[in-house]
């Protein structure tokens, strides 16, 4: 087999393995979405499989929200992991393309986080745009107005999170239909997609406005609102730290997720799960999409996750780099030694 054919086959295998997350490339697309020309608009959007393309053509008015959801998810991923060994390096810094990061090809806990935050990101932005009246097919959630409470009346615009979750489930989960995607990975990804969306639903909150003379609050009108996406990201990040390593087995002729080690806690539908252990992320590994930690800043006085020892950093203290140290709140920051 010649080298050109071998390279093509390797590329083909990688692309089919990462198909479930390639739709995140929507967040990088600068293509204009014209609601009057769904066929042309969808054709110019990157990363979608056939089922997602069909969704796009039929629901073009939701695609701007889905694209914004991809951007929101990626931004939150970078924020939550900017002090970690793996810093959500899904985007090639030179080409700005979604590339074959290890998280896209293996069932790691990082993959679990990205699936959860991405599914939540789409649900969040669709729900928010519904409340703003930007999507014709949906609006505020009127079902809460049927609830009765003597202390207040339901009014205002309650976030229609159920609609946002339904759109996320239809579009994001369609990414798990790749022919070469293993059934175990598909089950893991769908579980984590649902866990991410569930964070929105279980953290809805009641917000109220008082009415009455001199602010007496004799009467209140209330509505339901989503948490901020920063709060959503933090909750999912906590789930990442407590994720359960699992295996997929056949039980009663049905694939079932079970914990690998019976000494660890049982997972629930709200927990993140993963199949494969993660690399250490310290040294660059281009074949797996790992950029390494060389050149990044670390906190030499910290014993936490941003500390040089934990993040595999080596701070430099020679005279040439004194001007590169930044002292903030009496904490010296070093630069990773390459």
From TrEMBL:
Name of this protein: Protein Wnt
Subcellular location: Secreted, Extracellular space, Extracellular matrix
PROSITE patterns attached to this UniProt entry: WNT1
Gene Ontology CC annotations of this record: extracellular space
InterPro entries for the chain: Wnt, Wnt_CS
Annotated function: Ligand for members of the frizzled family of seven transmembrane receptors.
TM ranges: 6-26
Family listed: Belongs to the Wnt family.
GO BP terms in the entry: canonical Wnt signaling pathway; cell fate commitment; neuron differentiation
GO MF term list: cytokine activity; frizzled binding
Organism (species): Parascaris univalens (Nematode worm)
Primary location: secreted
Keywords carried by this UniProt record: Developmental protein, Disulfide bond, Extracellular matrix, Glycoprotein, Lipoprotein, Membrane, Secreted, Transmembrane, Transmembrane helix, Wnt signaling pathway
